[in-house]
Design a protein that fits this description.
single chain; alpha/beta; five-stranded parallel β-sheet; 26 strands; about 25% helix; globular
Protein backbone atom coordinates (compact mmCIF):
# COMPACT_ATOMS: atom_id res chain seq x y z
CA UNK A 1 0.00 0.00 0.00
CA UNK A 2 2.85 2.33 -0.80
CA UNK A 3 0.74 4.86 -2.71
CA UNK A 4 -1.99 5.35 -0.11
CA UNK A 5 -3.51 8.80 -0.17
CA UNK A 6 -5.56 8.32 3.00
CA UNK A 7 -5.20 5.99 5.95
CA UNK A 8 -7.97 5.98 8.55
CA UNK A 9 -7.46 4.75 12.09
CA UNK A 10 -10.84 3.79 13.53
CA UNK A 11 -10.47 4.03 17.28
CA UNK A 12 -8.77 6.91 19.12
CA UNK A 13 -7.33 4.42 21.57
CA UNK A 14 -3.87 3.48 22.84
CA UNK A 15 -3.54 0.93 20.03
CA UNK A 16 -4.91 3.34 17.44
CA UNK A 17 -2.57 6.09 18.56
CA UNK A 18 0.47 3.80 18.36
CA UNK A 19 -0.56 2.67 14.89
CA UNK A 20 -0.82 6.32 13.83
CA UNK A 21 2.60 7.02 15.34
CA UNK A 22 3.97 3.96 13.58
CA UNK A 23 2.68 5.16 10.22
CA UNK A 24 4.36 8.53 10.60
CA UNK A 25 7.65 7.25 11.99
CA UNK A 26 7.87 4.78 9.11
CA UNK A 27 7.53 7.50 6.53
CA UNK A 28 3.85 7.73 5.70
CA UNK A 29 3.20 11.35 4.72
CA UNK A 30 -0.31 11.09 3.29
CA UNK A 31 -3.62 12.06 4.84
CA UNK A 32 -4.10 10.47 8.25
CA UNK A 33 -7.57 10.43 9.82
CA UNK A 34 -8.36 9.23 13.35
CA UNK A 35 -11.99 8.44 14.11
CA UNK A 36 -13.03 8.12 17.77
CA UNK A 37 -16.46 7.42 19.19
CA UNK A 38 -15.58 9.20 22.43
CA UNK A 39 -15.10 12.96 22.51
CA UNK A 40 -11.65 12.58 24.10
CA UNK A 41 -8.21 12.36 22.54
CA UNK A 42 -6.41 9.08 23.37
CA UNK A 43 -5.97 8.53 27.09
CA UNK A 44 -4.59 5.92 29.46
CA UNK A 45 -7.24 3.50 30.69
CA UNK A 46 -5.44 1.46 33.41
CA UNK A 47 -5.62 4.27 36.03
CA UNK A 48 -9.40 4.56 35.64
CA UNK A 49 -10.12 1.65 37.99
CA UNK A 50 -7.37 2.62 40.42
CA UNK A 51 -5.87 6.02 41.27
CA UNK A 52 -8.43 7.92 39.21
CA UNK A 53 -11.20 6.61 41.49
CA UNK A 54 -9.29 7.10 44.71
CA UNK A 55 -7.43 10.32 43.86
CA UNK A 56 -8.04 13.53 45.72
CA UNK A 57 -9.28 16.71 44.17
CA UNK A 58 -11.37 17.59 41.16
CA UNK A 59 -10.42 15.54 38.08
CA UNK A 60 -11.21 18.63 35.99
CA UNK A 61 -12.52 18.72 32.46
CA UNK A 62 -9.36 17.79 30.58
CA UNK A 63 -7.50 14.51 30.39
CA UNK A 64 -4.76 15.71 32.73
CA UNK A 65 -2.23 12.98 33.51
CA UNK A 66 -4.33 10.45 31.58
CA UNK A 67 -3.48 12.10 28.25
CA UNK A 68 -1.34 10.00 25.90
CA UNK A 69 -0.44 12.90 23.64
CA UNK A 70 0.47 16.55 24.01
CA UNK A 71 -0.01 19.46 21.59
CA UNK A 72 3.53 19.19 20.26
CA UNK A 73 3.18 15.53 19.38
CA UNK A 74 -0.27 16.05 17.90
CA UNK A 75 1.17 18.72 15.64
CA UNK A 76 3.89 16.31 14.50
CA UNK A 77 1.32 13.57 13.93
CA UNK A 78 -0.58 15.90 11.59
CA UNK A 79 -3.79 13.87 11.80
CA UNK A 80 -7.40 14.85 11.28
CA UNK A 81 -9.30 14.00 14.44
CA UNK A 82 -12.96 13.07 14.04
CA UNK A 83 -14.03 12.67 17.67
CA UNK A 84 -17.50 11.91 18.97
CA UNK A 85 -18.07 10.11 15.69
CA UNK A 86 -18.87 6.42 15.42
CA UNK A 87 -17.93 4.22 12.48
CA UNK A 88 -21.07 2.37 11.43
CA UNK A 89 -19.91 0.28 8.46
CA UNK A 90 -16.89 -0.56 6.33
CA UNK A 91 -17.35 -1.01 2.58
CA UNK A 92 -14.12 -2.66 1.54
CA UNK A 93 -15.06 -2.79 -2.16
CA UNK A 94 -15.73 0.95 -2.33
CA UNK A 95 -12.96 1.85 0.11
CA UNK A 96 -15.36 3.76 2.32
CA UNK A 97 -16.16 3.99 6.01
CA UNK A 98 -19.69 5.08 6.82
CA UNK A 99 -19.85 7.35 9.85
CA UNK A 100 -22.69 8.55 12.03
CA UNK A 101 -24.79 11.18 10.34
CA UNK A 102 -24.53 9.45 6.98
CA UNK A 103 -21.07 10.78 6.15
CA UNK A 104 -18.87 8.54 4.00
CA UNK A 105 -15.11 8.69 4.46
CA UNK A 106 -13.05 7.59 1.47
CA UNK A 107 -9.90 5.76 2.50
CA UNK A 108 -7.16 3.65 0.98
CA UNK A 109 -6.03 1.94 4.19
CA UNK A 110 -7.77 1.12 7.45
CA UNK A 111 -6.47 0.45 10.94
CA UNK A 112 -9.20 -1.14 13.06
CA UNK A 113 -8.66 -0.16 16.69
CA UNK A 114 -12.18 -0.06 18.05
CA UNK A 115 -11.27 -1.98 21.20
CA UNK A 116 -13.85 -3.67 23.38
CA UNK A 117 -16.93 -2.82 25.36
CA UNK A 118 -18.07 -4.21 28.72
CA UNK A 119 -20.28 -7.26 28.80
CA UNK A 120 -23.48 -6.73 30.70
CA UNK A 121 -25.98 -8.86 32.58
CA UNK A 122 -29.75 -9.00 31.94
CA UNK A 123 -30.46 -6.64 34.83
CA UNK A 124 -32.89 -3.70 35.09
CA UNK A 125 -31.39 -0.27 34.27
CA UNK A 126 -31.30 1.20 37.78
CA UNK A 127 -29.38 4.25 38.89
CA UNK A 128 -26.28 3.33 40.84
CA UNK A 129 -25.37 0.41 38.53
CA UNK A 130 -22.15 0.91 36.59
CA UNK A 131 -19.73 -0.64 34.17
CA UNK A 132 -16.23 0.76 33.80
CA UNK A 133 -14.43 1.10 30.51
CA UNK A 134 -14.25 4.73 29.46
CA UNK A 135 -13.26 7.99 31.11
CA UNK A 136 -16.91 9.05 31.19
CA UNK A 137 -17.77 5.74 32.95
CA UNK A 138 -15.07 6.47 35.52
CA UNK A 139 -16.26 10.03 36.07
CA UNK A 140 -19.80 8.82 36.81
CA UNK A 141 -18.60 6.09 39.16
CA UNK A 142 -16.16 8.41 40.90
CA UNK A 143 -18.91 10.94 41.58
CA UNK A 144 -21.20 8.32 43.10
CA UNK A 145 -18.51 6.82 45.30
CA UNK A 146 -17.89 10.28 46.73
CA UNK A 147 -21.55 11.18 47.17
CA UNK A 148 -22.08 9.28 50.41
CA UNK A 149 -22.16 5.69 49.17
CA UNK A 150 -21.42 3.27 52.01
CA UNK A 151 -21.87 -0.18 50.45
CA UNK A 152 -20.60 -1.40 47.11
CA UNK A 153 -21.19 -4.72 45.42
CA UNK A 154 -18.85 -5.65 42.59
CA UNK A 155 -20.12 -8.38 40.26
CA UNK A 156 -17.17 -10.25 38.80
CA UNK A 157 -13.77 -10.81 40.43
CA UNK A 158 -11.61 -10.50 37.34
CA UNK A 159 -8.89 -7.86 37.20
CA UNK A 160 -11.23 -4.89 36.62
CA UNK A 161 -13.62 -6.08 39.32
CA UNK A 162 -10.80 -6.64 41.79
CA UNK A 163 -9.26 -3.23 41.08
CA UNK A 164 -12.59 -1.43 41.48
CA UNK A 165 -13.27 -3.35 44.70
CA UNK A 166 -9.85 -2.35 45.97
CA UNK A 167 -10.52 1.31 45.16
CA UNK A 168 -13.91 1.18 46.89
CA UNK A 169 -12.29 -0.32 49.99
CA UNK A 170 -9.64 2.40 49.93
CA UNK A 171 -12.43 4.98 49.94
CA UNK A 172 -13.88 3.35 53.06
CA UNK A 173 -16.87 1.57 51.56
CA UNK A 174 -18.10 -1.80 52.75
CA UNK A 175 -17.29 -3.96 49.72
CA UNK A 176 -18.58 -7.36 48.62
CA UNK A 177 -17.29 -9.04 45.46
CA UNK A 178 -19.52 -11.67 43.83
CA UNK A 179 -17.90 -14.24 41.55
CA UNK A 180 -19.86 -16.97 39.75
CA UNK A 181 -16.84 -19.26 39.40
CA UNK A 182 -15.58 -21.29 42.35
CA UNK A 183 -12.41 -19.18 42.31
CA UNK A 184 -11.51 -16.06 40.28
CA UNK A 185 -8.66 -15.77 37.77
CA UNK A 186 -8.04 -19.53 37.45
CA UNK A 187 -7.83 -19.39 33.61
CA UNK A 188 -5.10 -16.74 33.92
CA UNK A 189 -3.11 -17.90 36.92
CA UNK A 190 -4.00 -21.53 37.62
CA UNK A 191 -5.80 -22.64 40.76
CA UNK A 192 -2.90 -22.44 43.21
CA UNK A 193 -1.86 -18.88 42.39
CA UNK A 194 -5.45 -17.74 41.82
CA UNK A 195 -6.22 -18.81 45.38
CA UNK A 196 -3.32 -16.73 46.65
CA UNK A 197 -4.45 -13.64 44.73
CA UNK A 198 -8.06 -14.13 45.85
CA UNK A 199 -6.76 -13.79 49.39
CA UNK A 200 -5.92 -10.16 48.63
CA UNK A 201 -9.61 -9.31 48.92
CA UNK A 202 -9.71 -10.48 52.52
CA UNK A 203 -6.41 -8.77 53.25
CA UNK A 204 -7.83 -5.54 51.86
CA UNK A 205 -11.00 -5.69 53.92
CA UNK A 206 -13.44 -6.79 51.19
CA UNK A 207 -15.70 -9.85 51.24
CA UNK A 208 -15.34 -12.30 48.35
CA UNK A 209 -18.31 -14.59 47.61
CA UNK A 210 -17.52 -17.28 45.03
CA UNK A 211 -19.63 -19.93 43.36
CA UNK A 212 -22.86 -17.97 43.19
CA UNK A 213 -24.47 -15.94 40.46
CA UNK A 214 -26.67 -12.87 40.50
CA UNK A 215 -30.43 -13.43 40.24
CA UNK A 216 -31.44 -9.77 40.11
CA UNK A 217 -31.30 -6.32 41.60
CA UNK A 218 -33.42 -4.72 44.29
CA UNK A 219 -34.66 -1.17 44.10
CA UNK A 220 -37.12 1.08 42.30
CA UNK A 221 -35.40 3.69 40.22
CA UNK A 222 -32.19 3.29 42.17
CA UNK A 223 -30.43 0.12 43.21
CA UNK A 224 -30.68 -0.85 46.89
CA UNK A 225 -29.37 -4.40 46.77
CA UNK A 226 -28.19 -7.41 44.80
CA UNK A 227 -30.13 -10.65 44.99
CA UNK A 228 -27.92 -13.71 44.61
CA UNK A 229 -28.89 -17.00 42.99
CA UNK A 230 -28.70 -18.70 46.38
CA UNK A 231 -31.33 -16.34 47.80
CA UNK A 232 -29.10 -14.00 49.75
CA UNK A 233 -29.58 -10.27 49.29
CA UNK A 234 -26.60 -7.91 49.56
CA UNK A 235 -27.48 -4.29 50.41
CA UNK A 236 -25.81 -1.91 47.97
CA UNK A 237 -25.64 1.81 47.27
CA UNK A 238 -23.43 1.25 44.24
CA UNK A 239 -23.11 -1.82 42.01
CA UNK A 240 -20.29 -2.30 39.51
CA UNK A 241 -20.63 -5.01 36.87
CA UNK A 242 -17.21 -6.28 35.78
CA UNK A 243 -17.86 -9.50 33.88
CA UNK A 244 -15.48 -9.05 30.98
CA UNK A 245 -15.59 -7.35 27.62
CA UNK A 246 -16.44 -8.17 24.04
CA UNK A 247 -14.66 -6.76 20.97
CA UNK A 248 -16.40 -3.96 19.09
CA UNK A 249 -16.97 -5.53 15.67
CA UNK A 250 -20.66 -4.93 14.95
CA UNK A 251 -19.81 -2.17 12.49
CA UNK A 252 -17.76 -4.65 10.44
CA UNK A 253 -20.57 -7.11 9.83
CA UNK A 254 -21.15 -7.36 6.10
CA UNK A 255 -17.67 -6.02 5.34
CA UNK A 256 -16.38 -9.41 4.27
CA UNK A 257 -13.74 -9.45 6.99
CA UNK A 258 -13.55 -12.61 9.07
CA UNK A 259 -14.96 -12.01 12.56
CA UNK A 260 -14.52 -14.52 15.37
CA UNK A 261 -14.59 -12.92 18.80
CA UNK A 262 -12.52 -10.18 17.22
CA UNK A 263 -11.17 -9.36 13.78
CA UNK A 264 -9.25 -12.30 12.38
CA UNK A 265 -5.73 -11.38 11.35
CA UNK A 266 -2.54 -13.15 10.48
CA UNK A 267 0.41 -12.95 12.86
CA UNK A 268 1.21 -9.47 11.59
CA UNK A 269 -2.17 -7.87 12.41
CA UNK A 270 -3.17 -8.05 8.71
CA UNK A 271 -6.67 -9.16 7.71
CA UNK A 272 -7.50 -11.02 4.51
CA UNK A 273 -7.23 -7.60 2.84
CA UNK A 274 -3.66 -6.21 2.88
CA UNK A 275 -4.92 -2.65 3.23
CA UNK A 276 -6.89 -3.42 6.40
CA UNK A 277 -5.14 -4.20 9.69
CA UNK A 278 -6.41 -4.54 13.26
CA UNK A 279 -4.73 -3.80 16.58
CA UNK A 280 -5.43 -3.97 20.29
CA UNK A 281 -8.37 -5.57 22.07
CA UNK A 282 -10.34 -6.03 18.85
CA UNK A 283 -7.64 -7.98 16.96
CA UNK A 284 -7.51 -11.79 16.97
CA UNK A 285 -4.11 -12.82 15.65
CA UNK A 286 -2.74 -16.09 14.39
CA UNK A 287 -0.30 -17.47 16.94
CA UNK A 288 3.05 -18.17 15.23
CA UNK A 289 4.11 -21.79 15.41
CA UNK A 290 0.68 -23.12 16.32
CA UNK A 291 -2.80 -23.51 14.90
CA UNK A 292 -4.15 -21.16 17.54
CA UNK A 293 -5.40 -17.62 17.49
CA UNK A 294 -5.21 -15.17 20.36
CA UNK A 295 -6.93 -11.90 21.25
CA UNK A 296 -5.00 -10.10 23.98
CA UNK A 297 -6.61 -7.45 26.18
CA UNK A 298 -3.29 -6.20 27.47
CA UNK A 299 -1.98 -2.63 27.48
CA UNK A 300 1.43 -3.67 26.19
CA UNK A 301 -0.03 -5.72 23.31
CA UNK A 302 -2.12 -2.77 22.14
CA UNK A 303 0.89 -0.51 22.26
CA UNK A 304 3.32 -2.85 20.49
CA UNK A 305 0.94 -4.08 17.80
CA UNK A 306 0.51 -0.57 16.40
CA UNK A 307 4.03 -0.38 15.05
CA UNK A 308 3.90 -3.86 13.52
CA UNK A 309 0.53 -3.22 11.89
CA UNK A 310 1.72 0.11 10.47
CA UNK A 311 4.80 -1.51 8.92
CA UNK A 312 2.76 -4.27 7.29
CA UNK A 313 0.07 -1.87 6.09
CA UNK A 314 2.64 0.31 4.37
CA UNK A 315 4.43 -2.71 2.90
CA UNK A 316 1.18 -4.10 1.48
CA UNK A 317 1.95 -7.53 2.94
CA UNK A 318 3.09 -9.11 6.17
CA UNK A 319 6.78 -8.41 6.51
CA UNK A 320 6.82 -8.54 10.33
CA UNK A 321 4.99 -10.69 12.85
CA UNK A 322 3.81 -9.70 16.31
CA UNK A 323 5.33 -12.15 18.74
CA UNK A 324 5.85 -10.21 21.97
CA UNK A 325 5.59 -12.10 25.23
CA UNK A 326 2.17 -11.43 26.82
CA UNK A 327 2.44 -9.18 29.86
CA UNK A 328 -0.02 -7.51 32.19
CA UNK A 329 -0.14 -6.04 35.65
CA UNK A 330 -2.79 -5.22 38.22
CA UNK A 331 -2.75 -3.12 41.38
CA UNK A 332 -5.03 -4.41 44.12
CA UNK A 333 -5.20 -3.64 47.85
CA UNK A 334 -1.73 -2.16 47.87
CA UNK A 335 -0.16 -5.11 46.04
CA UNK A 336 1.21 -5.12 42.50
CA UNK A 337 0.52 -8.30 40.53
CA UNK A 338 2.62 -8.85 37.39
CA UNK A 339 2.32 -11.71 34.95
CA UNK A 340 4.22 -12.56 31.78
CA UNK A 341 4.24 -15.57 29.51
CA UNK A 342 1.96 -18.27 28.23
CA UNK A 343 0.79 -20.54 31.02
CA UNK A 344 -1.41 -23.44 30.04
CA UNK A 345 -3.40 -26.00 31.96
CA UNK A 346 -1.08 -28.67 33.31
CA UNK A 347 1.92 -26.38 33.79
CA UNK A 348 3.44 -26.68 37.24
CA UNK A 349 4.19 -23.66 39.41
CA UNK A 350 7.26 -23.18 41.57
CA UNK A 351 7.88 -20.41 44.10
CA UNK A 352 11.38 -19.04 43.58
CA UNK A 353 11.32 -16.10 45.99
CA UNK A 354 9.22 -15.17 49.02
CA UNK A 355 6.41 -17.18 50.55
CA UNK A 356 2.73 -16.62 49.66
CA UNK A 357 1.71 -18.27 52.93
CA UNK A 358 3.28 -15.42 54.84
CA UNK A 359 1.08 -12.88 53.05
CA UNK A 360 3.96 -10.90 51.58
CA UNK A 361 5.41 -10.63 48.11
CA UNK A 362 6.64 -13.60 46.10
CA UNK A 363 7.86 -14.65 42.69
CA UNK A 364 6.57 -17.78 40.97
CA UNK A 365 7.58 -19.55 37.77
CA UNK A 366 5.29 -21.76 35.71
CA UNK A 367 7.01 -24.65 33.94
CA UNK A 368 6.32 -27.42 31.44
CA UNK A 369 8.78 -30.31 31.41
CA UNK A 370 11.24 -28.13 33.26
CA UNK A 371 10.99 -25.27 30.73
CA UNK A 372 9.73 -21.94 32.11
CA UNK A 373 6.53 -20.84 30.37
CA UNK A 374 5.35 -17.90 32.48
CA UNK A 375 6.09 -15.87 35.59
CA UNK A 376 3.96 -14.31 38.29
CA UNK A 377 5.16 -11.71 40.74
CA UNK A 378 3.42 -10.07 43.66
CA UNK A 379 5.32 -7.07 44.99
CA UNK A 380 8.54 -8.29 43.41
CA UNK A 381 8.93 -5.77 40.54
CA UNK A 382 12.69 -5.96 39.98
CA UNK A 383 13.20 -9.74 40.01
CA UNK A 384 9.99 -10.14 38.05
CA UNK A 385 11.18 -7.83 35.26
CA UNK A 386 14.47 -9.71 35.13
CA UNK A 387 12.59 -12.99 34.80
CA UNK A 388 10.31 -11.47 32.18
CA UNK A 389 13.32 -10.55 30.05
CA UNK A 390 14.72 -14.05 30.41
CA UNK A 391 11.38 -15.56 29.37
CA UNK A 392 11.24 -13.33 26.29
CA UNK A 393 14.66 -14.63 25.17
CA UNK A 394 14.14 -18.29 26.05
CA UNK A 395 12.70 -20.89 23.67
CA UNK A 396 9.16 -21.89 24.53
CA UNK A 397 7.64 -25.37 24.46
CA UNK A 398 6.28 -26.30 21.04
CA UNK A 399 2.93 -24.75 20.22
CA UNK A 400 3.16 -21.88 22.74
Amino acid sequence: MTAARTVTVVGASLAGLHAARGLRTQGYDGRLVVVGEEHHRPYDRPPLSKEFLTGDGDPGEGLGPLALTDPEEEAELDAEWLLGVRAEALDTAAGEIRLTGGRALRTDGVVIATGATPRTLPLPPLDGVHTLRTLDDALRLRAELRAGAERAVVIGAGFIGAEVASSCATLGLDVTVVEAAPLPLVPHLGEEMARVCAGLHTRGGATLLCGTGVAGLRGAGRVTGVELADGRVLPADVVVVGVGVRPVTEWLEGSGLALDDGVRCDAGCVTALPNVVAVGDVARLDRPGSARTVRAEHWTSGMLQGDVAARNLLAGSTVERFDALPYFWSDQYGARIQYAGRRESGDTVRIVEGDPAEGGGFLAVYERNGIPTAALGVDRPRPFMRLRRELARAPQPAGR
